[in-house]
Specification:
Low-confidence stretches: none
Shape: globular
Radius of gyration: 15 Å
Mean pLDDT: 93
Number of strands: 0
Number of helices: 6
Structural class: mainly alpha
Order of helices and strands: HHHHHH
Length: about 120
């Protein structure tokens, strides 16, 4: 198997990853009920993947940026990713639903504001 290489990326790109993942979640879950989500394996997998991206990207942000924007629960975002990846066998789909709908999708506005403030030419 070919070895994957690690690339250095800017914080703007990690923030953009988070923004795009939240937008995808919004599209995936538009007009979807919790029950529909729970019964759809492909949708659940897609949502978990986007939540993982959000947590992984957040983990790559500097502590200075996370402190500056402490209104976002960065530690929880990162911990959520770790729970999904390492505790995949015990995922609660109700909690995933709530996390996506109540926390991740609303994060979109905050991330957009950070990008606009920190990277005005973005």
């Amino acid at each position: 198997m070919p070895k994957l290489r690690s690339f250095m990326r800017s914080e703007a790109l990690y923030l953009t990853d988070i923004l795009e993942a939240t937008r995808s979640l919004e599209l995936f879950l538009e007009n979807i009920t919790k029950e529909e989500f729970i019964s759809d394996d492909m949708l659940r997998s897609s949502v978990v993947h986007k939540l993982t991206i959000i947590g992984e990207a957040a983990a790559h942000l500097s502590s200075d940026l996370r402190k500056k924007y402490s209104g976002i629960p960065w530690d929880d975002v990162i911990a959520n990713r770790n729970l999904i990846v390492h505790g995949y066998f015990s995922i609660s789909w109700s909690i995933v639903w709530e996390t996506a709908v109540q926390h991740a999708i609303p994060l979109q506005e905050q991330i957009f504001a950070i990008l606009a403030a920190e990277y005005p030419d973005w």
